[in-house]
Amino acid sequence: MLGLIRARLQGLKTRAEYRQFLAKGNPPWSPGYEQHKVAAISTAINDAGHDPFKLSPGYGWRLDERIVEYPWFISRLPAGEGRLLDAGSTLNHPYVLSHPKLREKKVFVSTLAPEYWAAWQWGVSYVFEDIRDACFKDEYFDSIACISTMEHVGLDNTMLYTSEASKNEQNVGSYATFLSELRRMLKPGGTLYLSMPFGQHVNHGWFQIFDAQMVDAVIAQFAPTHTTEFIYQYLPEGWTLSTREAAKDASYFDIHKNKTYDPDYAAASRAIVCLELVK
Questions:
Q1: For 75, how many CA atoms within 13 A lie in the half-sphere containing its CB?
Q2: Span 153-179, mean pLDDT?
Q3: Which of 42, 130, 238, 258 is most buried as measured by Cβ atoms within 10 A of its Cβ?
Q4: pTM above 0.85, yes or no
């Protein structure tokens, strides 16, 4: 009975926080933000009519880049069986892994350290490792998702992702080794779904923003047989499909360092590059 009472009280608190969040104009990362974000993403990825390449005005207003990355990835991932690697554990949320396209696949998650939630009950396999030296054999995966992960490789991952001191690095170029491992593990004809913050190159210490020259270098190193590229940009009114030229000066709002919001109320990245690289 006590547990039920506590659950009801928590539910009331959560609903009150959400109402207050909306009344204040959806300030990113405040109480109620995560609830709003999960609801928006769940609606987008499960709506057969949602087109991630024709975003409606105001789409993703004051939400971070996951609101465009997840629908992009889900829409491009083929239905059916196959082995899928989540390189970096960005997909490791119940509202994402429960999607039918993912449930019908054999999903592997490779990340630095265990997280608070795991989908063992759905047959998802977890490996805790540095993917620059991955344990999987050559050409094992039909597809690999690397969503907003490569920008952290070789930098300080102790702030958010692991307590292992050796992962506090400033090796800005080591993502090249990471990319080589992803290519090695992908089957010929398989697809790497890769997204990163895009705009003016800045090293923020725990991640870096990729500019156009860096993106071209990534594509050249992977040497795909086919490339599809999309740029998403955050504007004060929400997310929109953009171009390299329009987003070349895009920056990042770092909630871990900034105590006040910028005028556009960006939650994080102001531009994202989404690449499909077919081996």
A1: 19
A2: 89
A3: 130
A4: yes
